[in-house]
Amino acid sequence: MKITQLAKMAILILSLTGLAACSSTGEEAQEPAVAETESGVDATTRRAQELEAEARARAAAAEERMARNALNTTVFYFDFDVAEFRQADRDVLTYHAKDLAANPNKRIRLEGHADERGTREYNLALGERRANGVLNFLIVNGAARSQIEVVSYGEERPAQTGQNDAAYQQNRRVEISGI
Fold first, then answer.
1. Does residue 67 lie within any of the structural domains?
2. 121 and 53 inside one domain
3. More confident residue, 179 or 17
4. How many angstroms separate the most distant Cα atoms in the chain?
5. Is residue 2 part of a domain?
6. pTM
7. pLDDT tens digit string along 39-79?
8. Measuring CA to CA, how many Å separate 84 from each of 45, 79, 133?
9. pLDDT band at 14 (very low <50, low <70, confident <90, very high)
10. In what helix (H) or strand (E) does residue 76 lie, and over which residues does it extend?
């Protein structure tokens, strides 16, 4: 019986010694693991922030390119006998309005045009209505009225000569010109 008790005691001592050894080594091993995890989180967070900053920079650069392209668009076309500009032109005109709002000393002229169909007086009035439609949109989106001059040329300054649909389409327009 003594051998059995002695074996049990030896197993118990070995177990306690092994447990004590594991717990002291485990704590030391865990600290670097926690430190590595924390630095890993910091590195991951830093990388995510860098990626987010790069994405914002790319978005800002794309916005700048779109603004430049929009501001280079200065002619807006109209349908026959219509004074309202097209939906597709809204974004471009919004950039023009923002540009005017950001540059209070900038002045532009809106030149309204019509094709040759209709009387001279009617076409002058139509060109003016078209230019005023653009004017109102620009003002609503931030431009000041004092920055914009409106002129109607009616059918007097055609962009393209001819009596066909292609020529008529080119002549129904509002042009933005700097003053």
1. no
2. no
3. 179
4. 128
5. yes
6. 0.69
7. 566 888 899 899 999 999 999 898 889 888 999 999 999 99
8. 51, 8, 6
9. low
10. strand 75-77
CB 153 within 8 A of CB 171: no
For residue 72, which amino acid is it?
Answer: N
How many domains does the chain contain in total?
A: 2
Determine, yes or no, domain membership for 148.
yes
State which residues form the domain around 170.
73-178
CATH of the domain at 94: 3.30.1330.60
Does 88 lie in the same domain as 50?
A: no
CB 123 within 8 A of CB 154: yes
- Whether 86 is covered by a domain: the verdict is yes
User: What are the b/e assignments for 64-76, b being 16+ CB within 10 Å?
Assistant: eeebeebeeebeb
> What is the spatial distance between Cα 72 and Cα 86, in angstroms, rounded to a whole number?
18
Tokens of 153: 């040329």
Q: What letter represents residue 169's amino acid?
A: Q
| Pair (52, 83) in one structural domain | no
Whole-angstrom distance, CA of residue 20 vs CA of residue 145: 84
One-character DSSP codes across 142-176: T--GGGEEEEEEETSS-SS-SSSHHHHHHHSEEEE
Single-letter residue type at 7 = A
